[in-house]
Write the structure tokens for this entry.
Amino acid sequence: MGYVAGETILDDEYNNFLSGSSAGAYGINHVFGSGTAGYGLGQTELVGTSAGTTITAAKWNSLFTAMDNVANHTNDTLSSTTARSSGDTVAIISALQADLNTLAASVTGGSVSATAIAQGGEDVSTVASAVFDTSHICETAYTFAGGDEARWFFNAGGTCRIKLTNNASNSTSKDTAVTAVAASMGNFDMAGTISARSGSGNTQTTFASTTGYYDLGTGYTTLLHLEEDAGTYANNIEVKVEAKVSAAHADSRGNNGEVITFKCSVLLNDGTRDDYTSGNLSSIHVEAEAAGTTDFAFHTVDPTTAQGLATIYGPSGVASTSNAIVNAD
């Protein structure tokens, strides 16, 4: 027999399917509701039932619908939500719990297979104030309404995205090298539990691919460090992305603070600068040892409601907190 109108299931079993929060026995509210310790999507939770109450088909199907909505967003395949009127009761319970645990793993892993996500417009552009010969370093803060909202954003597959371009107004050979390193970075994305770069090439000194929002502390962690790998400026042109949070989580995979700050750097490390005069005989550019202006652009890649979620979350603000260049004396 299956769960059909007029048939009963123990109320505490049904309530566990809704609100269970133990490893291996996760309920739908822990997965898609407020959640704790790295779980939750911030959706409206289902209401449990009191002792002795018959679990109607409508209540049972509301659980199935909630599970299907999460699965549609995470792109998981479920086996239990189609068995509404047939099959052994115990078998159905077993399959249902397995499906709930699958959804729980996808959500706490950051919904990495979700396709209902989209890049938003540029939130902040931090352009170097002038060409430079030593460094362009900026800091930008993503602020959420609270730690819960940050957790729900990343659990649904949201990411913080950084892009680097070189305006290269002077187009020197050093600019060419900086542009190449920027291209090898591509889109840099930090998600809940991972980081990624869409570009390739050059020397990857550090790439914390298994580090995301949940892994950050209150001091900067280097997520990406690239160096030019060949040519005149080999090992002397670097791009770095670092990140920290306003408050580190107190429990495993818990809220990690509502402010995430990124520190992004372009570093030119090949010595002091000698500008050339406009009348030099070798046609060398006046500022041949400088580069820029470089531009770090900050975006979010946001979850959408296209495939099952009713409510989505994102930063309440993205703002530049520092932006400076350094030139040699």
